[in-house]
């Protein structure tokens, strides 16, 4: 329980800052179940994983903040318990001795519409349903949190332009009556599922401005999103719809060093053609009783070091080197299949 899968500290070096990470808690007060692919899911135990994570983070006494990568309550949560369950999980996060930055995921939006969800998650500048933001905990690093459900068929009112845009995308790219089914979709087309989403034009313009500013300030940027941004790190069925458009924009700059994500429950890791690390975090939901999946990340000028527990693998991500994949001292290249 909460045993570290360490890659070791950097001898003689102190990190510039450290922060906690967890993804896909998906708590619900219901019996254990399974995913569509048959993977066991431990709905009541997941909040105990979170409790232990918060205790661990507080005990370290060095973490500046926590990043939660979304899906705090499961879609199978009874709808008359959605609000209370979200408040319960947020309450556990609030026990951390510092700020917590939340991303929204599909399961969050199955439970509550954006207008109710975002204030509960204390999303900065959540006016008009906006759930993307940035912050700089130290001058030479900037964290950018993307809203992967900006264009989405869930969370917005049915007649909202962003919902209508999402439904049009799905109608064009997914011929199935059930838009959560990838049946007949091949390769990267498998990402066009209703439980995924996209980044809209306004958010892309905002991101471009943020990256311009970070470049001017000589900041290194960490991009965070519930949905993965590289097919080498995830099942194709878990990708952001327009991941390629987002990454084309990011690749116009040299400031982004790492992209962190959740959603693909088995986790994943790759380095893209521009040397950007993509790390997808393993889900807290799929931890059998007594096991854990959370971690903390030490930030150095030359890289990020994820020190993880139990079912989450530790990772070393060095900037601006010819490093090959390092994920438990190896590289994941096999297709990953546990999603959503």
What fraction, in percent, of the residue positions are helical?
10-25%
Described by the principal axes of the CA atoms, the overall outline is: globular
Number of strands: 15
Structural class by sheet pairing and helices: alpha/beta
Would you kindly provide a written description of the structure presented here, covering whatever features stand out?
The protein is an alpha/beta fold and 340 residues long. Helices cover 23% and strands 20% of the residues. The protein contains 7 helices and 15 strands. The chain has helices spanning 46-60, 82-93, 106-111, 114-120, 161-173, 201-216, 243-250, and strands at 4-5, 17-22, 33-34, 40-41, 63-68, 100-102, 133-138, 141-145, 220-225, 256-261, 268-271, 277-280, 295-300, 303-309, 315-318. Strands 1, 2, 5, 6, 13, 14 and 15 form a 7-stranded mixed beta sheet that branches. A 6-stranded mixed beta sheet has the order 7-8-9-10-12-11, with helices on one face. A two-stranded antiparallel sheet has the order 3-4. Strand 14 and strand 15 form a beta hairpin. Residues 324-339 have low confidence and may be disordered.
What's a quick, concise take on this entry?
The chain has 340 residues and is α/β, with parallel strands linked by helices.
Keywords summarizing the entry:
disordered C terminus; alpha/beta; 340 residues
Set down the secondary structure blueprint:
Layout: E1 4-5, E2 17-22, E3 33-34, E4 40-41, H1 46-60, E5 63-68, H2 82-93, E6 100-102, H3 106-111, H4 114-120, E7 133-138, E8 141-145, H5 161-173, H6 201-216, E9 220-225, H7 243-250, E10 256-261, E11 268-271, E12 277-280, E13 295-300, E14 303-309, E15 315-318
Parallel strand pairs: 2-5, 5-6, 8-9, 9-10, 10-12
Antiparallel strand pairs: 1-14, 2-13, 3-4, 7-8, 11-12, 13-14, 14-15
């Amino acid at each position: 329980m909460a045993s570290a899968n360490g890659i070791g500290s950097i001898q003689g070096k102190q990190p510039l800052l450290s922060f906690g990470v967890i993804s896909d808690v998906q708590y619900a007060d219901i019996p254990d179940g399974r995913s569509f692919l048959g993977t066991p899911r431990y709905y009541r135990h997941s909040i105990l994983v979170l409790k232990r994570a918060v205790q661990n983070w507080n005990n370290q006494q060095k973490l500046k903040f926590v990043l939660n990568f979304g899906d705090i309550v499961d879609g199978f949560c009874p709808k008359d318990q959605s609000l209370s369950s979200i408040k319960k999980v947020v309450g556990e996060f609030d026990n951390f001795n510092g700020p917590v930055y939340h991303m929204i995921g599909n399961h969050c939006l199955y439970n509550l519409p954006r207008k109710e969800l975002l204030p509960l998650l204390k999303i900065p500048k959540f006016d008009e349903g906006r759930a993307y933001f940035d912050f700089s905990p130290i001058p030479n690093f900037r964290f950018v949190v993307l809203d992967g459900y900006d264009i989405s068929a869930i969370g917005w009112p049915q007649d909202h332009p962003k919902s209508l845009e999402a439904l049009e995308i799905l109608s064009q790219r997914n011929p199935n009556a059930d838009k959560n089914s990838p049946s007949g979709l091949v390769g990267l087309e498998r990402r066009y599922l209703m439980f995924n989403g996209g980044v809209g034009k306004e958010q892309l313009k905002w991101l471009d401005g943020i990256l311009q500013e970070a470049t001017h300030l000589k900041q290194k940027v960490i991009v965070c999103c519930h949905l993965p941004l590289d097919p080498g790190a995830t099942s194709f069925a878990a990708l952001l719809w327009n991941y390629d458009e987002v990454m084309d924009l990011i690749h116009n700059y040299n400031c982004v060093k790492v992209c962190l994500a959740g959603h693909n429950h088995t986790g994943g890791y790759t380095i893209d053609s521009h040397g950007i690390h993509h790390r997808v975090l393993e889900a807290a939901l799929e931890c059998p009783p007594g096991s854990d999946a959370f971690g903390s990340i030490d930030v150095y000028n030359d890289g990020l070091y994820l020190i993880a527990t139990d079912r989450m693998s530790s990772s070393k991500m060095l900037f601006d080197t010819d490093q090959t994949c390092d994920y438990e001292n190896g590289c994941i290249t096999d297709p990953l299949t546990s999603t959503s």
